[in-house]
Amino acid sequence: MTRTERTRVAIVGAGPAGLLLSHLLHREGIDSVVLDERDRDQIETTVRAGILEQGTVEVLDATGASERALREGHRHEGIELRFGGEGHRIDFERLVGRGVYLYPQHEVLKDLIARRLADGGDVRFGHRAISARDAENPVVEVETPDGERYELVADAVVGADGSRSVVRTLVTGSQTGGYFREYPFAWFGILCEAPPSAPELIYSASPRGFALVSQRSETVQRLYLQCDPELDPDSMSEAEIWDELQARVAGTTLHEGPIFQRDVLRFRSFVAHRLLNGNALLVGDAAHTVPPTGAKGLNLAVADVLLVADALIEFATTGSRAGLDAYPAAASHRIWRAQHFSWWMTSMLHAAPDETEFDLHRQMGELESVTASEHGSAYLAEAYTGWPLARL
Ligand code: DHB
Questions:
Q1: Which of 212, 267, 300 to mutate to test the pocket of ligand 1 (most atoms within 8 A of CB)?
Q2: 62 CA → ligand 1 middle, Å
Q3: Do residues 277 and 172 touch, judged by C-beta distance below 8 A?
Q4: Tens of pLDDT, residues 336-382
Q5: Does ligand 1 come within 6 angstroms of the Cβ of 259?
Q6: CA–CA–CA angle 130, 135, 140 (5° rounding)
Q7: For residue 76, what pLDDT is reported?
Q8: Which of 96, 207, 259, 300 has its CA 20 to 30 A from that of 119?
């Protein structure tokens, strides 16, 4: 006989979505169990994106989920778009009165984990969800780090388990059921020991390919080069990487330093066909993936979670399914706007290998339409800093 445990909400995945949801439910007295196959150290040290929308930071701060994001994150009031050898600043603050925060995702995770544990939260590291079944009366089959198995029975199950979600099959009927697009390029990302090369992020479209100059702290930079998805990250020497980065952001002298991490990020757009089946739901990357340009991934996950938290609180306290049933339609507006924005930023700044001369000129026209027009710039500023959130 397999051991059985019970909870109100089973949350698969201790990323930003799963941990924030568990935290918001706890604030309303609703128990949850968060499962993640990774150990705590792995979750807290894996490098991801670094840009938080203003609304994301406001939610984290207002709910006590991350008091450091506002205090220690660096507020950026604009970005630079560089093309044709010239930089063009998009002034978010002037255009839309909002900004973004540079605060790495793994720092958000450290804050959320510390908060959940301080509040007595049940976060089970190293516990792998093998499968989820019965959308009406959800059961998650779990394996412990010792290889022991048990079943977690819950009123609702939430798949916050990323792009390779185990819960997705229960919700959509298949692992791949969704709208999907793949791009013929990727980003080669590095972390290096050097101070920021510029006060704000530089998104640079150059004839050699796209480059992004980002930051992590006063002593660490994050930089990206457009590359072939099959690139072996160890195939380039440090000197080759710096030469290529420097050539793609001509006009700014990059601060160089020892490179201590390299990775290749695939570009994909995905939205699951369904986000809800009975009492099984998908949030964050389990529900949708965006290409990294514009850093919408974590922010979109937070927006999903606000809707799902309210729906589950209503369900737990009144028994009403209204919020749950409304979730897919309510979430889909922001999901598709973010899909469009991420695709648009990507297509405007990257040339695909088979791009025609026409496309390259059209792309320059597009970049000029954005930078030479207040209205064009304002759209970018509005989308980048984030649309209003349900709760705020
Ligand atoms: C970062 C990543 C992004 O995709 C982006 O658009 C901006 C910044 C980053 O990792 O710093």
A1: 212
A2: 24
A3: yes
A4: 999 999 999 999 999 999 999 999 999 999 999 999 999 999 999 99
A5: no
A6: 25
A7: 98
A8: 300
Query: Is the pLDDT assigned to residue 177 strictly greater than 90?
Result: no
Whether the CB of 51 sits within 6 Å of ligand 1:
yes
pLDDT at 83 over 70: yes
The domain 3-76+99-180+268-352: what is its CATH number?
3.50.50.60
CA-nearest residue for atom 1, ligand 1, is 49
> What number of other Cβ atoms are within 10 A of residue 100's Cβ?
29
Q: Which one, of 293, 265, 295, 291, lies nearest residue 101 by Cα?
A: 295
Nearest CA to ligand 1 atom 3: 295
**Which atom of ligand 1 is least distant from the CA of 222?**
11
CA of 215 to the centre of ligand 1 (A): 9
CA of 52 to the centre of ligand 1 (A): 10
**Hey, what amino acid is at 143?**
E
Residue 181: which of 36, 330, 290 has the closest Cα?
A: 290
Percentage of residues of the chain with pLDDT beyond 70: 99
What are the structural domain ranges in the chain? 3-76+99-180+268-352
- What does the alpha-carbon distance between residue 120 and residue 20 come to, in Å, rounded to a whole number? 14
What is the reported pLDDT for 176? Answer: 84
Question: Are the C-beta atoms of residues 17 and 107 closer than 8 Å to each other?
Answer: no
Reported as type and span, the H/E element at residue 263 is strand 259-272
The pTM assigned to this predicted structure is 0.97
Cα 295 to middle of ligand 1, angstroms: 5
- Mutation choice for ligand 1 from 51, 200, 341, CB with most ligand atoms inside 8 A: 51
Say what the pLDDT of residue 2 is.
Answer: 87
Mean pLDDT of the chain: 97
Q: What is the pLDDT of residues 282-320, one digit of tens each?
A: 999 999 999 999 999 999 999 999 999 999 999 999 999
Phi-psi region of 295 (alpha: psi -120 to 50; beta: other; left: phi over 0): left
Active site residues: 76, 203, 292, 296, 384
> Does 292 contact ligand 1 (Cβ within 6 A)?
yes
Tokens of 354: 């088979």
Least confidently predicted of 97-111, 180-194, 214-228, 378-392: 378-392
